[in-house]
Design brief:
The chain has 75 residues and is α/β, with parallel strands linked by helices. Helices cover 44% and strands 13% of the residues. The chain has one domain. It has a three-stranded parallel sheet, sandwiched between helices.
Length: 75
């Protein structure tokens, strides 16, 4: 689905927990997530720590959107 959206000229960032799968399916901008059951968080952390983790991943994804690329890139 990522490739189809990009085909229309919209850059996409794929936040994923298993980077090799994203590379295999052809995602261009890949941001690794934390873990399969909790890609954007960790229930063992305090709410403040979890918020900081989520924010860092989203900021990395926003930066990836703004980065010109010519091939698959893991940020």
């Amino acid at each position: 689905m990522v490739k189809e959206i990009e085909r229309y000229g919209l850059p996409i960032v794929h936040i994923c927990t298993i980077v090799p799968i994203s590379l295999t399916v052809g995602a261009n901008r890949i941001v690794p997530a934390i873990a399969i059951p909790h890609p954007l968080g960790d229930p063992t952390k305090t709410p403040e720590e979890e918020y900081a983790m989520r924010r860092a991943i989203v900021e990395k994804a926003l930066s990836a959107l703004q980065t010109p690329i010519t091939e698959q890139t893991v940020f």
